[in-house]
Amino acid sequence: MRILYEKILETFDNNKECFVDKELIAPKFIDLYDSQPDTPEEFEFMCPAIFIDYNIVWERSGSQRIGTLLLEVHCLSSDTPETDNHSQRLPEGLQKIDFYETVADLLDGLATEETSGLVLTAERPVTTDYFNYHILTFECTISRSYKGKRFADGTVEGVKMADSNIKQYLVD
Predict the structure, then answer these.
(1) So what's the architecture of 2-149 in CATH?
(2) For position 92, what pLDDT does the model report?
(3) Which of these, 78, 103, 111, 116, is most buried using a 10 Å CB contact count?
(4) Closest Cα to residue 127, out of 70, 90, 93, 76?
(5) Are 109 and 118 in contact (CB under 8 A)?
(6) Closest-CA residue to 8 (of 58, 74, 65, 68)
(7) In Å, how far are 43, 108, 122, 158 from 67, measured between CA atoms?
(8) Which pLDDT score, from 0 to 100, does residue 81 have?
């Protein structure tokens, strides 16, 4: 997951012009999700912000772990005017949708050496006491080498035992 997260950071850092071209502000803050939109008083961040949450269901196949990764991208856009049909500033209000779509376009298909390309599978609005924002859900396959448990044989020499009871625990 670390490799994918770093690739996401790099993608946003290298593609700020995708936002600028649409007269949007590129994400100013990206972090792993830790309920920041629900409790912003406990965190310091600037909008627009992106928070990455994920869930992996693993299976083991020989020396590989293969998993299905669900990636949730919490997109908090900058404050925009209202989007109701009477809003005088409706085009500006709709920029939040442009922001979500730009984020989705940048991430859709993103792959790393341990993941297949991300596929956008769902999106939904979220309302908290502090923010109205959007969650984009992506899915991909992730793999990792399985190292298993490794033990080394060894000998301990010249250790003085202060209490013979310790020896009893080692034998059991």
Answers:
(1) 2-Layer Sandwich (3.30)
(2) 80
(3) 103
(4) 76
(5) yes
(6) 74
(7) 31, 18, 19, 47
(8) 67
Edge-to-edge strands of the sheet including 64-76?
29-32, 49-61, 64-76, 132-145, 119-127
Residues found in the chain: 172
Per-residue exposure over 9-32, b if at least 16 CB sit within 10 Å of its own CB, e if not: eeebeeeeebbeeeebebbeebee
Among residues 2, 77, 69, 67, which one has the least CA distance to residue 32? 2
Q: Where are the domains of the chain?
A: 2-149
The pLDDT of residue 150: 57
| Residue bearing tokens 């209000």 | 93
Q: Which residue type is seen at 38? A: D
Evaluate whether 32 touches 73 at the Cβ level (below 8 Å). Answer: no
* Per-residue model confidence (pLDDT) at position 84: 77
Q: How far is CA 172 from the centre of its chain?
A: 45
